[in-house]
# Entry
Amino acid sequence: MDLNSDLGEGFGAWRMGDDESLLAIVTSANIACGFHAGDPAIMHRTVRVAIERGVAIGAHVSYPDLRGFGRRHVDLPNEEIAADVLYQIGALEALAVSGGAHVAYVKPHGALYNEMAVDAALADTVVGAIVSYRDSLPLLSLPACEVTRSTERLGLPNVSEAFPDRAYEPDGRLTPRSRPGAVLHDPDEVARRAVQMATDGTVVATDGSIVRLDVQTLCVHGDGPAAVQSARAVRAALTAAGVKLAPFS
Amino acid sequence: MDLNSDLGEGFGAWRMGDDESLLAIVTSANIACGFHAGDPAIMHRTVRVAIERGVAIGAHVSYPDLRGFGRRHVDLPNEEIAADVLYQIGALEALAVSGGAHVAYVKPHGALYNEMAVDAALADTVVGAIVSYRDSLPLLSLPACEVTRSTERLGLPNVSEAFPDRAYEPDGRLTPRSRPGAVLHDPDEVARRAVQMATDGTVVATDGSIVRLDVQTLCVHGDGPAAVQSARAVRAALTAAGVKLAPFS
Amino acid sequence: MDLNSDLGEGFGAWRMGDDESLLAIVTSANIACGFHAGDPAIMHRTVRVAIERGVAIGAHVSYPDLRGFGRRHVDLPNEEIAADVLYQIGALEALAVSGGAHVAYVKPHGALYNEMAVDAALADTVVGAIVSYRDSLPLLSLPACEVTRSTERLGLPNVSEAFPDRAYEPDGRLTPRSRPGAVLHDPDEVARRAVQMATDGTVVATDGSIVRLDVQTLCVHGDGPAAVQSARAVRAALTAAGVKLAPFS
Amino acid sequence: MDLNSDLGEGFGAWRMGDDESLLAIVTSANIACGFHAGDPAIMHRTVRVAIERGVAIGAHVSYPDLRGFGRRHVDLPNEEIAADVLYQIGALEALAVSGGAHVAYVKPHGALYNEMAVDAALADTVVGAIVSYRDSLPLLSLPACEVTRSTERLGLPNVSEAFPDRAYEPDGRLTPRSRPGAVLHDPDEVARRAVQMATDGTVVATDGSIVRLDVQTLCVHGDGPAAVQSARAVRAALTAAGVKLAPFS
# Structure
């Protein structure tokens, strides 16, 4: 099993999350590429530490929205989205190559991630752009969504992820953040769910039913001390349960 | 001989120069990478047309200075300049790869170009960054300056350029733009100088002396109708003189 | 009658439209405030020329979208839109005050303009922000839309505009740009329509019916030589018809 | 005596310093205006809390350098610096007016602050811009520097500040940050120095000599928990020493 997390999300003098701690926990780093966070110098430093620790480098591509941290919809023509995605992947690739590595996968961020999951045309735009660049580059997404269908259609490897700290609906979707209980805060509970996801391929949904989750990576968050503690608990519990952690890529 | 020109220097809804005309004249296109001009969509379109016409793709890297068009000094630490240069080259490379090509050379822009010519430490920073990315990627510069010395020192191919529409001092340097007569406007005269540069490897300096210019490419400008006319005259005169035009790369 | 036009829509080294010519034609200048176009130096220069020529200064406020020229929807919370609008008005006001004048009105730009016309909550957000700043500052909009209703509700002066170079539907709305004939290009026809709008308060709609347009200002465009010619024809025809041109403010 | 601090220095999702705590300590808030930090929504929120607490609102104007946090030199023509300063003051003023207040003073930030102290032409540019906007608006600076001379020359009120947590040279200048001991970290010592500055108008320099400091405000920092603790100690010590704290404006 793989553990991924969002990293390098500072900008200039600003920092976000505890990169140092997370890079000792995860096996795959979703590195911001300058459009929602991350300037070239921060990307360069994050890439170097990831390479040192054997953490896989993922391009965390976003709509161009520094002020909104990539969380809001921007109404762009498809041609522009495709160019933006290629631009970001390439920028990170050059920094990775300069350190002796390569971008190992792509994970869209924020609004782009959410919209691609439900918008087939948008998914095809991004998947098509990646295929035109390197058709062996895995794209990380929710399981069983428009992205997985698009990667199948256009011929790109897909990797699906689950969120140990998020509640799931009986149909396998994430409980919207607006609902109470959508995000779990108890590190032990989050760790237990991670183990079940990794060893059993299932999660207990909000109605108590057991839902199948076919995923190759678990996403942990690093924003705030509680989050890092939770990520650490996930890693410890997985290791204790005999799950071998390694980059999926 | 190669003819290079700055291209793709619009941003969003704004345009600069006559890209369409120039892409039918030059053999190498210095394509802006988003830091002084050029957004990903413009880069993508410029790359596609360049590929169609067999024009070589160069990364026209700059200080981050959209509002100043990369013409002014920004006081950046070397680590940041290296990361910025890699970021821009990689961004353009992904767009080139998506169209079936590669970045064939790097040409710094504006203040960065001018400062590298006289600042050995800055030249080493940029040259070192490129070497760490791909040590066979040519760097375009003035002849016999800190950049040529740095590329020799650090092991990177260098390509030197001359400007048919600029006056030269007896020591082989460009006459500063602030002096009268620094820029030549007569297309015929510019074309004659281009032929002499290409066939004889020399230029007539401001004092009438003949100066040796060891260059592999000539830079033509595309800003304004007179400039395009001048660039066309250069190409026609070179062809008439039997000079074969092709990308140096 | 007042003639307004969008001005100061360059950015850094880029230019858009023929500001010099338009500032000799219009009586009110919608000056870009840095969010879709216009940097402080361009704003400063445009303000100075407007003051010299007795042209009223309007704040042409926009969504933050330099790359999209303010033409695309950005999904912002209302609190942020209100702050953005105040920020832009104040920035232009300081430059106007520095030249001995004041911002005389506000005209939203692009996507914000279009969305406010049909979205009452958005209109209230912008109108409320302006009321909190200066409740005597007129807001320019389409006639009989959500903006006019909002200004009435919240107590802000409204000024309505018509477009002599745009086709109108029988219900008084603009024919969408996507339809053939939506934009008129013949300067003489545009000028005739302007005179009818100014003297009769009517326009001939696409079905030949005559529609009442209760407006205090006519918007002319300055992008491209044909547009400036058209704007000049409008001014000449209005003057010939005895319409007195002066800022509405 | 007045206590001032830099506030509102977040951007989008990023935060810098503990604004909440500082707004309960200081009497004057230097609010970032969007060029080195601070977007309109953050400015709006900071202004509202400042007004609620009776804290004076200062425009913390900067070179345009979000990525460098305004700490690095940008080579701008004077015309552009003047326009940038006016733009920022006006933007903050509109947000202040919307809350029932006004910008009470201007304090340049980072590289601009440092360069104005030693560059008379730059000081005159900024002072001249402020004079053209409102010639009663105080400008905050170091004592006895090019800014104080410029304000005297051009007729603008000046307010000088001292730094209780910084070492001073025998000639009254700040010890450069690069030297050991340049920044004091012990809250008690910082508080003692603040009291001496406020009650005696002096500071003990690095060589033990006593230096006169003619200042109307003390600057405290809010970056990090130690800094807030130090600022609190300064306020407590000043109050205990019978110094009345109030905005200078």
The helical segments of chain D are 19-22, 40-52, 78-98, 110-118, 120-133, 146-154, 187-200, 225-240. The radius of gyration of chain D is 17 Å. The mean pLDDT of chain D is 96.
